Amino acid sequence: MASDLYREQILEHYGNPRNQGVLEDPDISVERDNPVCGDVVRLDVILEDGRVRKARFSGQGCVISIASASMFTEKIEGKTVAELKAMDDEDIFQMLGVDLGPSRVNCGVLPLRALQEGLARWEAKQKGSAV
Question: CA–CA separation, 92 vs 95, rounded Å?
Fold first, then answer.
């Protein structure tokens, strides 16, 4: 029964995505794709005082990738950089609340992969080098 609630939540986020759009002058902006099924997600993040002030996503994809990106942007707002760096695939699976088959795991973790790449680039820039 709880699984049905999570499925409804996924469909709600897919049909009415939160935080969809592009941010002007973000600290982090990364577009990642999932070549297996054609999903594309761009994640934009503005950091302020070491925390996520705003997060937005844009792109196109399947129900799981869009819902995951929508839910993910809600989840990361207010988090510190250290909290972001500590996030892993399990956080995404718990957020979605449903078992993802092997062909859908990459759809679900796409926004996390964008964030991880973006954080690496941002940290390198802070240290004065390029990635």
Answer: 5
Rg (CA), the chain: 14
Beta bridge pairs of residue 57: 20, 43
- The tens digit of pLDDT for each residue in 108-128 reads 999 999 999 999 999 999 998
**Terminal-residue alpha carbon distance, the chain:** 45
Which among 40, 30, 98 is positioned nearest to 65, based on CA atoms? 40
Largest Cα separation within the chain, whole Å, is 51
**Single pTM value for the model:** 0.93
Backbone angles phi, psi at 57, to 5 degrees: -135, 155
- Residue 86 CA to residue 114 CA, distance in Å, equals 14
